[in-house]
Design a protein that fits this description.
391 residues; alpha+beta; 15 helices; Sister chromatid cohesion protein DCC1; Dcc1
């Protein structure tokens, strides 16, 4: 393209009925360069926090296997990636000066000839999303750890996963993955993350609670050293410590390590053990057996079972059955579909533990119910049912 002269620029302004006095004196004359193809560049729109991450030299990572929708992760957050089309053509002009820069630089010449290096009609838009962590538990549950004596573990053909493996497979940031590993009580064995088989976990917990009982220790002050000393001959010491970490809070008093045991979590685990052997359990019978099964000094309450078990008040007599929130789908619509298959009408109190984890930042359970369910009154109580027919 021939270089434009000032006279040609002024003639063009006149034809366009524009007053040169209202414009900046410097003029950008654009021409397409030889490599101005559209496919070379991708635009990514970043919020200030993510911009700061990159400027500080940290990485942003795109995660997802071939059959998954891509997400972008910083060190501690996860974002959905969507292509946004724009009606304006976006041009990439290296060294392009903005009006502010031109005003600041009075020496800039009258006509600036710039070459367009590329263009785009769309860009990637990021939206903060919940990390997709369900797969984490699923992978680790392929091969739960049944203890050091288990022959099956030696011969297992299942994959085992290091932190690096999980970072490649799970669509979440590193901090979110490490936090979730804590939540699901995973532990590192020989460099691999494992979840304990539930029966083995109960066996370990039983050793600890029996020892607490026989030594008459207060539940708020269980000494690590004595536990390892007494139980180390029965199970690996790191497993004893892991079960104390899973079911207690570690603290140091006068240089010695103690654990304050979580009463609610222990009662909940024992309830799960009782419930997993029956499809449905008569509620009053269950409450009695449960009360007798927990360690002395602990009190059972039904609210300890939120997201683990559901009471059916409509049956006579009332029953209780196992329904674990982690077994339900991760997608919002699929979660509601599966809940409405289990029960047609839900009260807010009953459904909340099963949808609480779906709430995005600053979103309430009420907002989720408004979107995915319809409310009605039943015997003076507000209930929710599906907005669409459930097959």
């Amino acid at each position: 393209a021939a270089m434009r002269s000032r006279a040609e620029v002024d003639a063009t302004l006149q034809t366009a009925k524009l007053n040169p006095a209202e414009l900046l004196p410097a003029v950008h004359c654009l021409s397409f360069g030889p490599q101005a193809g559209g496919g070379e560049c991708c635009l990514l729109q970043l919020e200030p926090g993510l911009c700061a991450e990159l400027e500080a030299g940290r990485s942003l990572i795109i995660r997802g296997e071939k059959d998954e929708h891509a997400v972008l992760c910083s060190k501690d957050k996860t974002y959905d990636m969507k292509i946004a089309d724009t009606s304006n053509m976006l041009l990439f002009v290296p060294g392009c000066k903005t009006p502010e820069e031109l005003k600041a630089d009075q020496t800039s010449c009258n006509i600036i000839h710039s070459q367009i290096a590329g263009f785009s009609k769309n860009y990637w838009e990021l939206r903060r999303c919940r990390p997709k962590l369900k797969k984490l538990r699923k992978l680790l549950m392929e091969d739960p750890y049944e203890g050091p004596d288990c022959q099956k573990d030696q011969a297992s053909t299942f994959s085992k996963y290091t932190t690096e493996d999980l970072l490649n497979l799970i669509q979440a940031s590193e901090e979110e993955i490490l936090h979730q590993l804590q939540v699901i009580d995973a532990c590192k064995i020989e460099g691999y993350w494992r979840i304990l088989d539930f029966d083995y976990e109960m066996k370990l917990l039983n050793h600890v609670t029996q020892l607490i009982d026989s030594e008459s220790w207060p539940l708020s002050k269980v000494p690590l050293c004595a536990c390892l000393e007494e139980l180390g001959s029965l199970e690996p010491r790191e497993m004893i410590e892991h079960i104390l970490l899973s079911y207690g809070r570690k603290y140091i008093d006068d240089g010695e390590v103690f654990f304050e045991m979580h009463e609610d979590k222990i009662c909940r685990a024992i309830a799960q053990m009782l419930l997993q052997n029956a499809v449905k359990f008569n509620l009053s019978e269950f409450e009695e057996v449960w009360r007798q099964s927990v360690p002395e000094g602990m009190t059972t309450r039904l609210d300890q079972l939120q997201g683990l078990a559901l009471v059916d008040k409509s049956s006579r007599p009332e029953t209780i059955f196992l329904l674990k929130v982690e077994d339900l789908p991760e997608d919002n619509q699929e979660r509601f579909n599966s809940l409405f298959r289990i029960r047609e009408k839900w009260t807010e109190v009953d459904i909340t533990p099963y949808i609480q984890d779906l709430c995005a930042e600053k979103q309430t359970v009420g907002a989720l119910l408004t979107k995915y369910a319809r409310s009605s009154m039943l015997n003076g109580v507000k209930v929710y049912n599906s907005r669409r027919p459930i097959s």
